[in-house]
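ok trying again, last paste got cut off:
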Amino acid sequence: MRAGTFVSWDYVVFACLFVVSSGIGVFFAVKERKNPSADFLVGGRQMTFGPVALSLTASFMSAVTVLGAPSDVYRFGASFIIFGVAYTFVVIATAELFVPVFYRSRITSTYEFVFLVFFSGLGFHVFQILYTGVVVYAPALALNQVTGFNLWGSIFATGVVCTFYCTLGGLKAVVWTDAFQMVVMVVGFLTVLVQGTQRAGGVASVWDVANKGNRLDVFDFDFSPLRRHTFWTISVGGTFTWLGIYGVNQSTIQRCISCRTETHARLALYFNLLGLLTILVCAVSSGLIMYAFYTHCDPWTAGSITAPDQLMPYFVMEVLGEFPGLPGLFVACAFSGTLSTVAASINALATVTYEDFVKQCCTNLSTKASGWISKGLCVVFGVACTMMAVTASYMGGIVQAALSIHGMCGGPMLGLFSLGIIFPWTNSQGAAGGLIVGIALSFWVGIGAFIYPAQEIHTRPLSLSVDGCLQPNSSITHTTAPLSYQNATILSPRSPLADHWYAISYLYYSAVGFTATITAGLLISFLTGHTRSQDVPPWLLRPICNLFCFWSKKNRKMCWCGVNHDLKQISAGFLPGHLCRGQKLYFGLIRS
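nice, full thing came through this time. structure:
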């Protein structure tokens, strides 16, 4: 059942998003036409922190977040707001641990650091295309089923427009388009919040209803790793999950290294945190307002919609449907996240392919040839991501598995980069062995959880009511509610493995992969002959002990484990842009 359909003004507002995005690509194509190669993949390394910060936020908050986060709050409560803690840790770790190493190394692709370039790069391509296809298809399907918005038209329009402005304008077009789309996301959310609050009876009413429905029970300090969302699973597990996707991800790092200075790169990340928290507050508030509005008639339980992800567009059509153009503004808000994610993926895929494969095979490319090859790669991956979105329509339940697999890969990759950046003793055998063990364990628990879903006693969905729903063939009301987790029973025998190992919170999958990679990597390194600390270039490491021993230079040097982190010597001995010259790919980092 649809709450309403799009009218002409909605399509006009939505079309403006695509027109402006394409226009930005044309602008930078004309502006930078005389220097295509240097500016195309890294923006000439002259970007300022403002647009980069907005771009990072927009690409981080995909349409899956815009539609999925309010639905999660609606069903499970406002504990989702604790992700703000995880975002803070992720941004600090990325700004202080990973970005300084990547920026000073003057690399373009993060996979230039790893010795398993082919394996890591190929894995990145597969999962990035798969994830991008799902990010395009999932919100398009939800919007289509609720609003009647054309499914295939929106998918192909997204693919074509993103490919168009990525190919023409490169990273600069992507960054500035993301900045514009971030503004659209905030405006769209605020429109829904203002009108939704008014229709739900005001702020006080929303708060009171949410409180009575237990949606404001935010802080649950249960240490059990089996619980889906507690303070610890979100703040700790969420940090590992998003750090694997954010801290060492090509899309994020590529934006940071495009900044004119390392300080600008760090500022971009910290200002981006403000954007992340803003979108998070908007998403959580939207979920609470939705619950207050549907407190007596849940459309999902009543059968008006078929999936939780349809709640937000259904709600939007109910509260904004009488205002022509405003539903289109919200759809533009949702697709702004999609456009940003797709554009970031296309640009990152093209960069990794060019730097790690094309440049290694063709060493004497001219500037003009490099520019045309980069543009061609953008077209190729734009088509690939669009086709993946079409393929996702035939995948059914595998779509959820694809998203889980993408997340499970983040933990082991985070562990691999951390081994190289933090631990100077790691060798190639340790890195390879640790990565294999990390992937094996994270896939084991993730696939097991997909086959044996967690019981409600661990997920604990909150009650929903249809007491106020008027049945179509009767004047009386009917009440249904989901089974309470207190009364949940095991319908079929399950093994202890399914009830414990497979039942851990999905937010801990990345932590499992990270911990296994680090532990196995260090153990194998010491068993096979670890790397001598004195042989490791100091600019390829980040001495985190400096953060804990800042008061004592003597203690800091003792914790350097033989690596000389004298910044003056590093500056004198390091030639930016010549990191690979005379060196070999040794382990997780390029080491002499």
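cool. The chain is about 65% helix and 0% strand. Confidence is low (pLDDT under 50) at residues 396-402, 473-491, 567-592.
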